[in-house]
Amino acid sequence: MTVAMLACGLMSGQTNFSDDPLHAVFETKDAESFWKAFDRIETSKENPFNEYIKNGSPGVQGFVPFRIMNADSLYTTVKRRKEDYIKSRNVLSEISLKEKRIKAIYSALKYWYPKAIFPPVYFVYGRFNSGGTVSKDGIIIGTEMLTDLNGITGLITHELIHFQQGIQGDDTLLKQSLTEGGADFLGEFISGETINSKPFQYGETHSAQLCKEFITKLKGNDYQDWLYGISKKDDRPNDLGYWMGYKIVEAYFNKQSDKHQAIDHILHIQNPFLFLKESGFLDSYIQEYANGKNMKFDDFFKEYSDEVHEVTFLVSVPDKNDEVYITGNQPELGNWNPSSIKMNRKGNKERSITLKIHLPAQLKFTQGTWDKEAEIKGREKGQNITIENIKSKKLHYEIKDWYKN
């Protein structure tokens, strides 16, 4: 499944791919190239995977950042897990049989969503850290993760749905759960095949407990215990957000009379909070939560509250010449315009600004462009800063460095 958040808008905007499901391309040359390099490990004086990466397809190039990393990293992993790689050596020998089934599924998507496009599917080799993802160039499958082709149609279908998606809104747990759960729901709808059985079984068994927890987390961008990793605070499996997103999307879909239009809306959710409200799936839990907070039911679905908090942001910068801009999820924070609100110079290496904001707030610091985004000390690179409550009217942040997004 996908490991990181998807640039769905970019992917759905691609126009240079076939809109005919029967013309979809399944590319296995990278797998052949990998095994040629693999067979030279013991005899080559140089790293044989240099050539695999250098001559790799757009699929390999899309797998290099965050997954393969570089030829040396791949070489080290292959040496350490040689026997695990060997298990997949002949796994693609019957892929042509699966292609027929996949193209039939693609045709089903074309019926329900006529605007569908069908990018190439690249079978590549990585470092056992991703079963599949999408890039602007197509669907990429981590072949080393396969010991057989059982489930490959479901995986490719899931990633195909991701390629069609263009979901809007801030990067919240709700949005990402709808992204993943929507891909699962629509993938199952057109293929009849289910994936991610563990979180679904656990979710159905612990539904009430999970729904109560989810509504307290859905507006933030902390995915732990819901997507891509667990804290082991209990016995839950990974990726319960897939299940939750699926259930919300399913509830929405079942309420719509025009199923073609419903699928279009699911692929292009404009406001995740209004979509949740329209689904009705969590209504009883949200009403209970709102009552406990003396909140109106409808107010829960607002991205942030009407209440205003005055906050002073103090930012330490790595260089005295650095100019800093603040941007975030509301007009008072520039509505994610990276150059609309410039911070004031307070000293050689400190910048400040006082703003009136709404909670929860999400924000980032830039140098006036998304090409120069701040890496904040103590926070994961690229993650939004989320402010859910105000403990102090002065908030301090230290910028370690700037990076190109």
UniProtKB/TrEMBL annotation:
This is CBM20 domain-containing protein. Signal peptide: none annotated. Residues 132-259 form the DUF2268 domain. InterPro entries: Carb-bd-like_fold, CBM20, DUF2268, Ig-like_fold. SUPFAM superfamilies: Starch-binding domain-like (SSF49452). It comes from the Bacteria. One of its GO terms (molecular function) is starch binding. Residues 310-365 form the CBM20 domain.
